[in-house]
Amino acid sequence: MTLITVAPTGAETSKSDVPALPVTLSELVGTAQECEALGASVIHIHVRDADAKPSLDPAILRDTVQAVRAETNLIVQLSTGGAVTDPEAARLAVVDAGPDMGSCTMGTLNFGDDVFMNRWEFIVALHQKMQDNGVVPEYEIFDLGHLTALGRLLDKYGLPAGGHVHVDFVLGVPGGAPGTVESLVAFKHALRDLPAGATFSATGVGRSSLPVMLAALSAGGHLRVGMEDTLTYAKGQPVDGNMQLVARAAGFARLAQRPPLTPDEARSMLGIKG
Ligand code: KMH
Ligand code: ZN
């Protein structure tokens, strides 16, 4: 069975460049409903403000969590990564919006022309805040050393809320590990140093989306897809919308005899209370 996460918006693409990007609450909820119907069980959310700019505004975050909960059964995962310019305090405050899950990036990396800063002390603070608030982390792994850092974090500060360890390999970011089968296999091997039963999903940025998806399915992993990571469906063909990417992922999962998990099945796998 395959957990499919949809990451519909991200913080890097502008609405004016890509009109299909969901940026308002109603666009996000509509996308969430359609992606749930197609097989997604988790939604990884970055919110936008009234000008469609990336935001960590606490009121927008709270309203978004409530609306997606009210209109879908999806597991609501808020991004604590935000945009590269977001300060640590605002990123930590994301947990206060009460999502089911929060992302937790396991190290600093060059992010295209920018730097995505994740100091060790910040990672520890975020991990502990999620433990204290019963928010289940998804550890974002952009490079192999991030898995080593995760092993150290869990050894020193204990298991996350729910007791299950789930990581997401984000491959193909300029500055992180390449979006190749070789990266995926190396990352999967490194999971053996984490607590038994740890699960992984994977996403390939841009043109690495398909090879990473097919490799992750073959390797027993789960999938993340969406316009945060991929804006091209095929060479020369822009994505119509997030639904197209989720439908393709669900189709591959069924072909691989590992059909999509329902949100409740995913809750049980991830240690999220219903
Ligand atoms: N927007 C990136 C700088 C996350 O959501 O936690 C960070 C990111 C990771 O997207
Ligand atoms: Zn994100």
TrEMBL record:
Keywords: Metal-binding, Transferase, Zinc. It holds the Pfam family BKACE. InterPro entries: Aldolase_TIM (IPR013785), BKACE (IPR008567). Coiled coil: none annotated. Transmembrane segments: none annotated. Its cofactor is Zn(2+). One of its GO terms (molecular function) is metal ion binding. This is Uncharacterized protein (DUF849 family).
